[in-house]
Every structure is written in C-alpha cells, then in structure tokens.
Amino acid sequence: MALALETPVQFLKGVGPRRAEAFQRMGVTTVEDLLYHVPHRYLDATSVTPIAKAAVGNEVTLVGRVVSKAVVPTRRRLRIFRAVLRDQSGIVECAWPGQAYLDRIIKQGQLLLVTGPVKHYHGRQVVPREQVVLAEPDDEEREDEMGSGMVLPVYPATEGLSHRQIRRLIADHLEEMLGCVTSSLPKGVTGGLGLVSLRQALEALHRPADPSQPEAGRRRLAFDELFDLQLVVARARFLAQSAHKGYQFEIKKELTTALKQKLPFELTTDQRTAVREITRDMTSADRMHRLLMGDVGTGKTVVALFAMLLALENEHQAVFMAPTELLAEQHAHTITTLLAPLGIVPEVLIGRLSQGEKKAIRERIAAGSSRIVVGTHALIQEHTKFWRLGLAVIDEQHRFGVEQRAALIEKGEAPDVLLLSATPIPRTLALTLYGDLDISTLKRKPVSQSPVRTGVRSNKDRAAIYRFLQEQCKLGRQAFVVYPVIDESEKVDLKAATTMATELGKRLAPLSVGLVHGKMKAEERDTVMRSFRDGDLDVLVATTVIEVGIDVPNATVMVIEHPERFGLAQLHQLRGRVGRGREEGHCILLTDDYVSARRLKQFSRTADGFKIAELDLKERGIGELAGVRQSGGFNLRYADLATDDDLVIAARRAALEIIAADPDLSHRPHLELRKRIERRYERGMELFRIG
Ligand code: ADP
Ligand code: MG
C-alpha cells in the first residue's frame, strides 16, 4: 500500500499497537504527525574520535560498546556510575559522579555515544556531559550506525517508546514519508525569505548533513505555522467585518472639535495618530475592531473619549466598561472633568449603587437621555438596554472573558469596538495574538511626567528604606509595598504578606498601613483601596492585585519584595502605579538574589514598556507574559516570536492578501491550504471571536 500523509502510523513497519499507543500519547497518529515530530535537540557527532585518540584535556565525542559497568561509592558519600567503552581502537573509562541511577538505564553491550571532556584520573577518564544509547546489545547490524559526519537527532520520547526507537523508525521510513510531502503554500508567498522547500526542511530536521541544517528546516516549518495562523486570523477578521456592516459615522466636528479646544493640554503625537486611526475606522463602512495599546499614563482614556464623542455627535451612545468599580470610578472622574466644559455628564453604572439608583440609570440609558455610560460588569446584565449603542470601549480588555466582551457588544446592533490594554507587547506578538484586530499604540507619555527612579537594594538596606518611606509619608505622600503572591491560593505566601503588613504597621508607626490581597472579597478590597486613594492610609501592602488598578497621584514610592519572582513586564506594571502625579516616583526592588540582580538592573535602566516586554518575551516566552490573550489554543511549535519577526510579518502580509482575494479559500490553488488548516485548527476559529 502506498503511504499517504493521513496513513495511521500503525501501518508503518515496526509500529505495532503498543507503539502506536505510545505515539498517540505524544499526539502522533498519522504519517504527517510523525514527519512533524521533529527532534528537540541534536548531538553534533560530526567528528567522532577513535577511543585510542581521546587525549586528556580535550572535548571529545566517542562511540563504543559498554564492556563493563559499576556503581562506585566514594568516601564523601557521592556515588559514581562508571562504564568502560570499547571501539575498534581501544577502551576508555567514563565516570558520571552522582548519577548512580544510570545503572538502571545503561546496560552492558549497548552502543553508547558520549560527549564530554577527557580528564586524568588514574589514567584517562571521560566525564560525559551527555550520553545517548545508539543501539541495544543485540543490535549487531547497527554497529557502524555512526558513520562519520553525522548529526544525531534526539527525539521527544515517552514511556514505551525511546528516542532511539523513534530515530530508528523515522530513519527507516524517511524516504518513503518524504515522498508524500507536497507543499501547499501558494506561489510567491515566501519570496525573499530564503526558505528551503518543505521536503528539504523535513529532511534537514530528521537527517541533517551538518549542524546548521536543522535551523534552516525549523524556519520553514515556523513560516508555515505562522502563515496558517495568520490565515485563520485574517479569515476571522474578514468574517467579523462582513457579518454586520458597521455604522458609517460622519465627522461633524461638533463635540470632537469642542473637546480638542477645551482640553487643558495638547495631545501627544501618538495620541493624535491613534485618534486619526480610530476616526478612519469609525467613518468607514466596516466595523471597527481596534486595540489601543499603551503603558499606564500614556493617555488612552482621552483617546477613547474622542471616539466616544464621535459616536455621540452621530446620534449614538458610547459605553466604557472597566474591570473594577474603582477603575470605573476613576475613568468616570477623568471623563467627567474633561467633558465638563462641553456640558456633558457621563452616567456611571456600578454594582454598589442602590437598586433604585441602578433602575433610574438603566431607564435613562434605555431612553437615550444618557449618551455616555461608564461602568463595570453591571453594564452587561440582562436588564441593561441601550437606546442606540454606537461604540463599546473595553478597558483592560484581557480582564474580561470572551462572553463578557460579547455581552457588552451585543447591547448594540453592530457597535464599533475599541479595546484598551495597558500591557504593551512586541509587535510580532501583537500581530500574532491580536492579528484579528487593528492596533494603535501609544509609546510616549505626555511630557509632564518624569520617569520613575528605579533602584535595586538588598535586605541590609531595609532600615534605610523604611526611613525613606517615613520621610515621604511625612511630606504627605503615600507608598505601596508589594509582596509576591503569585498563586493566591498559596497559603504560605499569603501569610508572608499578612505578616508583613502587621510588622510594617509596628515599624512605621504612627503611619497607618493597610493590606489588600486576592483572597479578599471584591467589596472589602475596594474599601481598602478607596481609603488609600482618599489618603486615609499612608502605606498599602499588597499582593499583585494592585497591578491593574488604582491611580493614586499622591503615591510616590513602590517597594517590591522578591522582585526576582516577577516577570519584567509585571514589574513594569507595578512601577507604573507611582509617579503619576507631580512628584517624582521611586521604585525600590528589594532582593538578596544576586543572580537576578543583573536583569533587575537592566530593568531599572529601561522605562520603555515595549522594550521591557521584548526582554520579557525573550526571557520567559509567551505563556508567561502577563495580561495577554490566552495563547494556549494555538501553541506555536516551531516559530519563536522573540526572533522570527521577518517570518511573522511576511506571513501576515501574505495571509491578508490571500483572504482579501479568496475569503473562503475556495479557489483552486488554495484548496490544499484550506484542507491543511481545517486539519490543524479544528477549533481555531473559536479563538478569534472578537466579541
Ligand atoms: P492611561 O489610561 O493610558 O493610563 P490616562 O488616559 O488615564 O492614561 O491619562 C493619564 C493622565 O495623563 C490623565 O490625568 C490625563 O488627563 C493625562 N493626559 C493624557 N493625555 C495627556 C497629554 N497629551 N498631555 C498631558 N496630560 C495628558
Ligand atoms: Mg487607563
């Protein structure tokens, strides 16, 4: 039977039901899956040294049969695993200090590849850094498997299926499997990227001729993967836009112009660009789906306000939803102040109002006598009805679930949507995670704010830091002390934060110290936060719940305990809580962990949220980036968003072009593509629902 990509691996010679089951556990069921099951690392065995020639002082790669082995205890209770290897030229002893468990893995008669330094210890002794079993004792015919010039692939393995068995299987069937591979990329898509063909790529990954080949192979698979993803994204975007035609607002220059004239400041260049981009979207026939991204304090609210007024002057309502009552109040306050000269008063709908008040507000919203509405989740409750909702603004959009965002948007017929995010992320990541949205970014803060001074200190400075807190508070300012409770269910951490608050209360007396953490009820937390905002508390001890949250211009100091436990982007968010008023802000990173001091120093010198996000991405990968859309559904296996910028950008451009010309991928040259995407992204479309 001829092999095809869909052929179950079980039909391959050498794969029985048991191995098929083991493969399945790794997500490999078909020949195609097996081809894409690529090595996770390689051993560079391009130069294997004959054992007799392994000289003391050199790094070597050796291949030999295990002729004897033993676990040897030492006086210092360290157990050493030793094995003697033999090839045609001679024998040598290898020693693995502290790795007695290898005795259960390495067997006499096995063919072993080891790499490591040759030392002198009662004669020559190799101390392997790595070892790989190339063949079992009875695999005589594989004795010369290690021909010269070989880069040895090491595969992800599982119980019942060793990497060696996988290597053998793939080597045995590679030619045949590669024969099934056809590229489904339309012509011209990869122009200028210097990518190898799909078949070459897979061969380079499974059977590299030199150590540089796998990377060329990876880049090709990475491009395919990014291209598929961008197609899904581009299609989701197309569907979202074509499902409902948007309102085509007109620039009436009534309210928006009035606001511009009455603002107490000039818009920054970034703000002006963002307003222009938003206006273009809102005046076009397509619905707006735009993400406005910028650090705290870059002035997103003002930009959103222009959009809201554009809806208003076109006889529509605009709604602004924030994730907490405190934030909603804060935005309401900003908006109220800015709109006062125009004689517009926003409506504020939050949970803690009385039933009677809420009822009255809902009536005004339904009747259209209230045109600008700011609020929390209370907005999306069933009995909130809008008269004519033209624009929905969602602050800290990642704090809401898909359903919650959809619920708000569905309050109107086809309102324009503006999402706000205070988590700046690198462009490549944004184009991937938020590829279905248009993106505006605010990079520069209004000049009036000076950067927060950041310093790394150790525990021996604690007394001085407390003195500094006292001085600042005496001047009438306020301080945060943040304690890392990464997982709010961790009792130990929580206790530490609580203890900290009590201790600080004593040490800083007569200053008043409050505490907020994620285990508190939302109302309780809001109460403490409010009293801090209103100046009734001098110092607020907090877990990361304050990361997104209150704006207290009077707070000038942010002390962060154990900063090494936070990602850089998260530290940056925390730092953004101070220095929001006229006084200079101070951020003190308190740690004795000298290993992380370097990255913290680098952080302390960087004020640019986008740069920090890039560093964070390089350090920790996407999964860890705080506050971005969950990426679990489309785990990238081959692409690396920290380095593959060129691939992301090219993939996006190509995908947008193709979807514009053939939204359903139903044209002949795109049929293969469509099949592949349907195979790989069964649930892909779900992930890209904007609402
Ligand atoms: P964000 O929501 O991005 O954190 P805000 O919109 O709340 O930022 O703005 C932060 C503060 O800066 C507000 O007090 C706002 O009035 C002020 N602000 C906004 N834009 C400007 C500007 N162009 N010049 C001076 N101050 C500004
Ligand atoms: Mg804001």
In brief:
The protein is 37% helix and 18% strand.
Explain the overall architecture.
- The chain is α/β, with parallel strands linked by helices and 691 residues long.
- Among the domains are: 43-154, OB fold (Dihydrolipoamide Acetyltransferase, E2P); 255-283 and 297-421, 3-Layer(aba) Sandwich (Rossmann fold); 453-606, 3-Layer(aba) Sandwich (Rossmann fold).
- 37% of the residues lie in helices and 18% in strands.
- It is built from 21 helices and 21 strands.
- Strands 11-12-10-13-14-9-15 form a seven-stranded parallel β-sheet, with helices on both faces.
- Helix 3 (163-178) runs antiparallel to helix 4 (198-206), helix 4 packs across helix 5 (213-243) and helix 7 packs parallel to helix 8 (300-313).
- The radius of gyration is 31 Å and the shape is globular.
- The chain starts with 16 loop residues before the first helix and ends with a helix.
- Residues 684-691 have low confidence and may be disordered.
- The structure holds adenosine-5'-diphosphate and magnesium ion (MG).
- Magnesium ion (MG) is lined by residues 300-301.
